[in-house]
Amino acid sequence: MRTVQPDDSTSARSMARSAVGGNHGEMTRHEHQKRRPPVHTVTDRARISVEYFERMAQRARENPDDLWPELIDGKWGFKAMPDGDHGEIVMWLVKLFARIRSELSLYVEQGLKVEQYRTGRARPDATLAPEGSFVGQGEWSDPAPVLMVVEVTSFDGDTDKRDREEKPRAYAETGIPLYLLIDRDRCETIVHSEPEDGRYTAVIARSFGKRVHLPAPVDITLDTDRLLNLVR
C-alpha cells in the first residue's frame, strides 16, 4: 500500500481514492479487486498532527461518498462505509437501549477525542452516553460522559489489528469504562471492561446466541440470538 501524505491543497476525496487503490476509472473491476488493499490500514502510514488530521477530515466530510477518516496512534486511516448487516446490528442495539435504558442514548458514528492525551480521533460504530451529552460540541467530542463504545467488525483485512488491538488500546487509554466488540468473523460478542494503565484488564467473549453481561456502569444482560441471523 502507498503511504498518502498530501499537502493542504490535496482533496480528501483524492486521498481516499489513493488509499484504496488509485483512480477507479482507470482500471477494470478485476484489476481494482486485485490491487485494492484493506480500506482502513493505518499501521504503515507516517504519523501526522491532530491539527492536520482535522483539516483533512473536514474536507472528507464535505464529500459524502468518501470513506470516513480516523486518527489512531498518530496515523491516518479510513473507515469503510457499513454493509446492510452491520447497520442492522447497530439499529438492534439502538432500539434495545431505547427500550430498557431510556435515560441513555446510543449515538451512531459520534466522533470522539481518544487516547491518553486526547490526540486521537475515533468514530465508533455506536457510543452510549446520557442523553444530551454532546450538545454544543463539534465533530470530535469530549469522551468524559461516555459509558460504552461499540464496534462491529467489517469484512476487510485490517479488522484484526484495528478492532482487536488498536481500538481497545485507544479506548482504554481514554478511560471509557466498556468496549463492546461484535466480532462477525468469530461470531462472538466480546466485552472489554476495567480500563487500567492503557488496557482493559477484563475481557469476556461469548458466542453469538449466548447471553452476555455488560457490567457497571451499564449493568444489563444482552440476549444475542438476534446476531445469529446477521452473519455471513
Structure in words:
By secondary structure, the protein is of the alpha+beta class. It has helices at 12-19, 29-35, 50-61, 84-100, 159-174, and strands at 68-72, 75-79, 104-108, 111-114, 120-122, 126-130, 140-141, 148-152, 178-183, 188-196, 199-207, 211-214, 220-223. The strands form 4 sheets. It has a 6-stranded mixed sheet. Strand 8, helix 5 and strand 9 form a beta-alpha-beta unit. The radius of gyration is 18 Å and the shape is globular.
Summarize the structure.
With 232 residues, the protein is an alpha+beta fold. The protein is 26% helix and 28% strand. A hairpin with a 2-residue loop joins strand 1 (68-72) and strand 2.
Radius of gyration: 18 Å
Order of helices and strands: HHHEEHEEEEEEHEEEEE
- What's the rounded overall pLDDT mean? 81
How many beta-strand runs? Answer: 13
* Secondary-structure class: alpha+beta
Tell me the strand order in the biggest sheet: 3-6-8-9-10-11
**Unreliable residue runs:** 1-44
Helix-residue proportion? 25-40%
State the distance separating the first and last CA atoms: 28 Å
Overall 3D geometry? globular
Q: Note the total helix count.
A: 5
Hey, roughly how much beta strand do the residues contain? 25-35%
